[in-house]
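Z., the sequence and structure:
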Amino acid sequence: MEPDVNELVDRSREGDQAAFGELARLHQHEVYTLAVRLTGDRTLAADVTQEALIRAWRAIGRFRGDSSFSTWLYRITANVAWTLKGRAARQRTYQLDAMIFQPQADDRTNPEVAGERTELRARLGAALAELGRSQRTVVILKDVYGWSHKEISDALSISVTASKVRLHRAHLRLRELLKEAS
């Protein structure tokens, strides 16, 4: 039986490190997955995950509960990803590796489908890498994670309208980039 997240948050606010450890355990995979998708680098994503969880522990006392704990944690993760990715870009150059989409079951059984999907993943990953971070983040949160515009606006401290506009512009840009690549 999974522990109650709200109870763990309350206990964490009171300084219970074990409760926060359980929160971290429950959310670490999703935090890492988001970090990989935002940075495109598994090694950097591991650093982002660790730093995001450390920052969340330090800030848990200020968590007001206006959004869900996971939304709050994902916002921290996005901010850490932007910070560390910028720092890494200044220190070295690396290539985005196709946004880490997992192969589907039929990829393994049909080589033609596998090849087409691999090519599409590479083109999509390259197109996503061309977007600015604000547009890329909205695309990932909306199209990959299925978040509502309200959740995105809360997580990124933008209006719902801004979220919709960024997504629309990002989709238009992705369409252009994918046409150019074909």
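The two ends are 49 Å apart (CA to CA). The chain has nine helices and no strands.

Let me know what you think.
H.
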